[in-house]
Amino acid sequence: MSSNNRPLSPHLDVYRLPLSALLSVVHRGTGGFLTIGTIALVWWLLALAGGEESFNSAQQFMGSFIGRLILLGWTFALFFHLSNGIRHLVWDAGYCFEKEAVEKTSYIVLGVSVFLTLLVWIVAFFFGAGA
Amino acid sequence: MSLRSPLGQAKGLGSAKEGVHHWWAQRVTAIALIPLTVWFAFKVAVLSMSDYNTVIECIGSPWSAALIVSLIVAAFYHAALGMQVIYEDYIGGKAMRIFAIMATNLLLFLLAAASIIAVVRIAVGG
């Protein structure tokens, strides 16, 4: 019984994931990260509802290097999950399943998420810091 | 004649007809979150650099507060549905899986309730 020509399932530890598979993993990762990130959102809203003093200390942390880094990560995760989520809705409707289309839209998803992340912080520095 | 498969009949466990609801709810919240998150991401980024009075005015205006409450409901529901799928895929033991899903649902409900109360308090001008 020859088994030479049989297709094998990928050996994950020696197999380079295609971009689409990597983005699929990142979609879950960003989803989980955003769920944890809601804690920061709740904390910020509660600090705001608590009055000027509690808000200022929350705002001070958000303005620190670590705070900015968290917000940067949060916006990128959000925009990635958003763009890839829209791609999932397109797939749900039955479009863009061809290998080339999946490859192409993978790059579009990455491009759009980086673009929106940069845009949101350019806008923020322009309007937020200036005001 | 039963249309059930022999295995399905033997186990007596057909579809609980709940999977479709989960799937639809995830899509509906996803579509609602497209405009809401784009709007909110820009708002949060700008407001992270603003002072107290600006932020209070911006979050507390009736439309703003209504949109944030909508965002909170859709986002936490979407998060609970998504986390459930992750647990179902990766947690093998049934007891542990059910515990993780329940704990997450209850925690996310509490967080959603707290943030809605915060937004209402800001909007009413407490």
By CATH reckoning, the class of chain B would read Mainly Alpha
Mean pLDDT of chain A: 91
Structural class of chain A: mainly alpha
Tell me the domain tally of chain A: 1
- What's the Cα radius of gyration of chain B? 20 Å
In percent terms, what proportion of residues of chain B is strand?
under 5%
Topology (elements, then pairings):
The complex is a heterodimer of chains A (131) and B (126).
Chain A: H1 19-49, H2 52-63, H3 65-92, H4 99-128
Helix pairs in contact in A: 1-2, 1-3, 3-4
Chain B: H1 6-11, H2 19-47, H3 52-60, H4 62-90, H5 94-124
Helix pairs in contact in B: 2-4, 4-5
Written overview of the protein:
The complex is a heterodimer of chains A (131) and B (126). Chain A has 4 helices and no strands. In chain A, helix 1 packs antiparallel against helix 2, helix 1 crosses helix 3 and helix 3 runs antiparallel to helix 4. Chain A has one domain: Up-down Bundle (3 helical TM bundles of succinate and fumarate reductases). By secondary structure, chain A is mainly α. The model of chain A has no long low-confidence stretch (mean pLDDT 91). The mean pLDDT of chain B is 91. Chain B contains 5 helices and no strands. In chain B, helix 2 crosses helix 4 and helix 4 packs antiparallel against helix 5. With 126 residues, chain B is mostly helical. Chain B has a single domain, classed as 3 helical TM bundles of succinate and fumarate reductases (Up-down Bundle), CATH 1.20.1300.10. The chains are: A mainly alpha (131), B mainly alpha (126). Chains A and B meet through helix 1, helix 2, helix 3 and helix 4 of A and helix 2, helix 3, helix 4 and helix 5 of B.
